[in-house]
């Protein structure tokens, strides 16, 4: 019988919080998942190793079956997460959040790691099967990195950097040799159609009644099933999609007033309020952070 994993102590789950902008490792095991679905996105890469417990995973509104020891590569600003078609049991995973700037530096002018991963995911291939040995090794490295973050001495930081490079090497080797392509599946056609519609029209004004009427369901059914499926309300999801597009446009150098208008906000103040709530900083601060990260390369 398989022994349950021993949890590695970590101060808190922060998703690159606590003023971290470089990388953050996380190992987690939940015997019973106490939360709902978890569609979300962030500004950095996520290199996620699924060890067990989840049946389906959603990436950019496509749902894929997921197996033990599978690697998922999620580029920045890509909506992803497990969906609410079931409740995970014995959910075990290990993943590394890493900024594009840190990923570029890790290549050390020898390998363009951002270009390498972008080329693979641009084809729509996000999943890669790992051997049990490689998945175990990467999980151990994640656990060691998690503990190593507590050592801020130069030698401690260097040791953790070495672990991160080892992890990235194994990840890239698996991406390079994995040729199997996973096809998306349908687990809740109604909600996937609603998601597709919203993704195509999220910059337009929306009312729950209008969306519900379009898909022939009641407002209460739409509200309940959407939260169950995505972990977010319809309104919250629409605002997240708008902020997601705003970040892409800010990164591309579009003027902030134009960003607000093109992303569907009625005025700049509502854009500012929503962006700060969902990003933890103003659009201008976000632009400055991007420029600073780029200048550090």
Describe how the helices and strands are arranged.
Elements: E1 23-32, E2 45-52, E3 56-59, E4 62-65, E5 70-74, E6 80-81, E7 89-98, H1 100-106, H2 113-122, E8 127-129, H3 132-148, H4 154-177, H5 189-201, H6 208-214, H7 219-230, H8 234-251, H9 256-262, H10 268-279, H11 283-295
Antiparallel strand pairs: 1-7, 2-5, 2-7, 3-4, 3-6, 5-8
Helix pairs in contact: 3-4, 6-7
Characterize the structure shown.
The structure is a single chain. This protein is an alpha+beta fold and 297 residues long. 47% of the residues lie in helices and 15% in strands. The strands form two sheets. A five-stranded antiparallel sheet has the order 1-7-2-5-8. Strands 4-3-6 form a three-stranded antiparallel sheet, with no helix packed on it. A hairpin with a 2-residue loop joins strand 3 and strand 4. The longest helix has 24 residues. The N and C termini lie far apart (48 Å).
Outline:
Helices cover 47% and strands 15% of the residues. It is of the alpha+beta class and 297 residues long. The longest helix has 24 residues, at 154-177.
Termini Cα gap: 48 Å
Strand content range: 15-25%
- Most strands sheet: 5 strands, antiparallel
**Strand element count:** 8
Can you write the helix and strand succession as a string?
EEEEEEEHHEHHHHHHHHH
Major sheet: order of its strands?
Answer: 1-7-2-5-8
**Structural class designation:** alpha+beta
* Backbone shape: globular
Continuous helix count: 11
Q: pLDDT under 50 segments (min length 5)?
A: 1-14
Mean pLDDT, nearest integer?
A: 89
Gyration radius (Cα, Å) is 20 Å
| Share of helical residues | 40-55%
């Amino acid at each position: 019988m398989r022994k349950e994993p021993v949890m590695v102590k970590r101060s808190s789950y922060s998703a690159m919080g606590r003023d971290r902008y470089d990388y953050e490792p996380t190992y987690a095991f939940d015997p019973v998942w106490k939360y709902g679905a978890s569609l979300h996105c962030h500004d950095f890469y996520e290199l996620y190793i699924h060890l067990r417990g989840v049946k389906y995973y959603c990436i950019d509104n496509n749902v894929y079956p997921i197996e033990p020891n599978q690697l998922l590569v999620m580029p920045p600003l890509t909506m992803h997460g497990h969906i609410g078609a079931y409740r995970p049991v014995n959910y075990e995973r290990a993943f590394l959040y890493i900024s594009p700037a840190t990923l570029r530096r890790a290549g050390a002018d020898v390998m363009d790691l951002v270009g390498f991963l972008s080329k693979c995911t641009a084809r729509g291939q996000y999943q890669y099967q790992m051997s049990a040995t490689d998945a175990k090794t990467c999980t151990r490295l994640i656990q060691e990195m998690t503990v190593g973050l507590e050592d801020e001495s130069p030698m401690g930081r260097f040791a953790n950097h070495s672990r991160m490079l080892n992890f990235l090497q194994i990840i890239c080797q698996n991406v390079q040799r994995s040729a199997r392509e996973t096809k998306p599946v349908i687990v809740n056609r109604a909600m996937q159609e609603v998601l597709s519609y919203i993704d195509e029209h999220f910059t337009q004004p929306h009312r729950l009644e209008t969306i519900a009427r379009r898909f022939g369901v009641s407002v209460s059914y739409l509200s309940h099933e959407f939260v169950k499926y995505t972990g977010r309300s319809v309104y919250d999801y629409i605002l997240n999609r708008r902020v997601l597009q705003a970040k892409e446009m800010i990164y591309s150098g579009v003027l902030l007033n134009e960003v607000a208008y093109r992303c569907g906000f009625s005025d700049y103040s509502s854009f500012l309020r929503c962006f700060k709530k969902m990003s933890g900083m103003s659009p201008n601060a976000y632009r400055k952070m991007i420029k600073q990260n780029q200048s550090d390369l």
